[in-house]
Amino acid sequence: MKLNHFTDFSMRVLMYLNQKNNTDSSSLDELSERFRISRNHLVKIVQFLSNNNLVSTKRGKNGGIHISEKALKMGLGDLINMLEQEEFPVINCHSKPCVFISHSCRLKSLLDVAYQAFIDSLNKNKLSDLKFESWNAIFSS
After folding, report:
1. Which domains does the chain have, with CATH numbers?
2. What pLDDT is stored for residue 126 in this prediction?
3. Do residues 64 and 16 make contact, with C-beta atoms less than 8 angstroms apart?
4. What are phi and psi of 67, to 5 degrees?
């Protein structure tokens, strides 16, 4: 399965915020510089994460972006599924005419089962399982 860029960048942001242990807030400019992602794209990502209560944001001098408790407790599979839900299903039998449109075609159901197994497997872990000790050097710069 290939994750979309939105999910990839969202996970990077969440992992980065998680590494900071909520000690400092992050700004859009900081995230844009760290990941070399356009600030405009990050605005959309952070807005989505905020609307889904995965991060909290505060404007102003003492503002910034912090990871939420919900994001820390959520299984990685559920997190990925939430981020990917904007996309189409693994297979969309109705997007183009299909000669197999019938109840006898099993491809969609097999892919749905495989996708659920993927999500279930990822749900055995949380963001905290992705922490690396060597990442601490990133924050000292």
Report:
1. 5-139 (1.10.10.10)
2. 95
3. no
4. -75, 145
pLDDT of residue 131: 75
What is the mean pLDDT, run by run of 10 residues, along the chain of 141 residues?
A: 86 90 80 91 95 92 88 94 73 69 74 90 92 58 50
What would the 3-class secondary structure string for the chain be? CCCCHHHHHHHHHHHHHHHCCCCCCECHHHHHHHHCCCHHHHHHHHHHHHHCCCEEEECCCCCEEEECHHHHHCCHHHHHHHHHCCCCCCCCCCCCCCCCCCCCCCHHHHHHHHHHHHHHHHCCCCHHHHCCHHHHHHHCC
Q: Report residue 112 as tokens.
A: 């749905």
Question: Tokens standing for 86?
Answer: 């904007």
| pLDDT of the residue at 102 | 61
Residue type for 60, please? Answer: G
Distance CA 57, CA 49 (A): 10
**Burial profile 71-97: b = 16 or more Cβ within 10 angstroms, e = fewer:** beebbbbebbbbbbeeeeeeeeeeeee
